[in-house]
Amino acid sequence: MNPNVLKAGLNALHYSGIGEAMAPMTRGLGVIFMMHHIRPATGAEFDPNGLLAITPDFLASAVGRVRQRGWDIVSMDEAVARLRAPEARTARPFAAFTIDDGYRDNLEHAYPVMKAADAPFTVYVSSALPDGGAELWWLSLQEIIARNDAIEMELDGVPQTIPCGTLAAKRAAWNQIYPILRHAPEDEQRTMTRALCARYGVSQKDICAEQAMSWDEVRTLARDPLVTIGGHTINHFAVSKLDPARASDEMDQGAARIAEETGARPKHFAYPYGDPGSAGPRDFDIAKSLGFESAVTTRKGMLADAHRDHLFALPRVALNGNLQSLHYLDVLLSGAPFYLFNGLRVFRPA
Question: In angstroms, rounded to a whole number, what is the distance separating the alpha carbons of residues 222 and 113?
């Protein structure tokens, strides 16, 4: 959705009071928040991945606002317990904070905020990140476009030169190339990215080393009872694009690698990308068969009673870098945007 349209809709729900009026009907039982990067603002003009980043100050304000509004902040263990058993619930709604991938800023910036607030949270780790071999192709693409005035690549079998010498051109180049890589088969996506990186002198290994936590850093988080380490595959593949055996191996061996390094196998899982094209019913069944207790998607929505039967397809709500305002958070907590988005339903099967 166009960010300006999204903001206009959220502003309308906020300033009209409609969001708050709808909340008793649309809020559901609670929410799982999704984040990726927590770090100070970079100030970069060209930052297409910036929507994945929020500042530590906004995270601290969001945690405070959630509690101010009477919500409990709970671990994923507690969230699942409250979904499974009505008797485990209170009258208060609950929020679980989760962070995907395993970036160093999760330790450097998110952890101090959550620790100071005594707030539990979950980090879903793709094991290739701390192993040092993750191909963070979306960050690599941003770096390639930022550094160059033009990019040569083959599109639909035809060599093309894509200009990116101005800020507007860089944004246009991103909007042209990113969807191609994002929706390509996983192996083809990685092959194309490697070729671009080789041509333009961008090291994916260096990007991983700069961005990812080491295993020592993951263990630092894992030692704190406030922190849950979850699984997120080995290589951050969209599992629905893999054959069943390979999808299962990505999910299982990523968790096994975390167990090897931390001493505890993850009980909770997050599907990379998590949209309907990246994880579907087959993958939900795989997650369940591997012994996970829950799995989260990026499908948008609040948690409802019916999710007790859909613990491997749980929706989340993104704390978006373009929406770092508490009045947007208030509207999201009302559940109203998702009720409207999901066809006037609090629960929408994945």
Answer: 16
The dihedral over CA atoms of 309, 311, 317, 321, expressed in degrees to the nearest 10, equals: -170
* Residue 297: its H or E element: strand 294-300
pLDDT confidence of residue 173: 98
Residue 247 placed within a domain = yes
Confidence of residue 137 (pLDDT cuts 50, 70, 90): very high
- Among 206, 228, 249, residue at a domain's last position: 206
Residues of the chain with pLDDT > 70: what percent?
99
Tell me how far apart the alpha carbons of residues 203 and 127 are, in angstroms, rounded to a whole number.
19
**pLDDT for the residue 318:** 97
Q: Which of 237, 219, 229 is nearest to 274 (CA)?
A: 237
For residue 178, give its domain range.
137-206
Q: Mark whether 239 and 267 lie in a shared domain.
A: yes
Using DSSP's 3-state secondary structure scheme, residue 264 falls into coil
Q: Which of 114, 120, 115, 67 is nearest to 96 (CA)?
A: 120
Using DSSP bridges, classify how beta strands 72-73 and 150-155 pair: parallel, antiparallel or unpaired.
unpaired
Per-residue pLDDT tens digits for 187-226 = 999 999 999 999 999 999 999 999 999 999 999 999 999 9
Q: Which residues of 109-118 are buried (b: 16+ CB within 10 A; e: fewer)?
A: bbbebbeebe
Q: Is the pTM of this model over 0.70?
A: yes
Exposure pattern of 119-158 as b/e (b: 16+ CB <10 Å)? bbbbbbbbbbbbbeebbbbbbbbbbbbbebeebebeeeee
> What is the Cα–Cα distance from 9 to 177, expressed in whole angstroms?
28
Q: Are strands 150-155 and 158-163 parallel, antiparallel or unpaired?
A: antiparallel
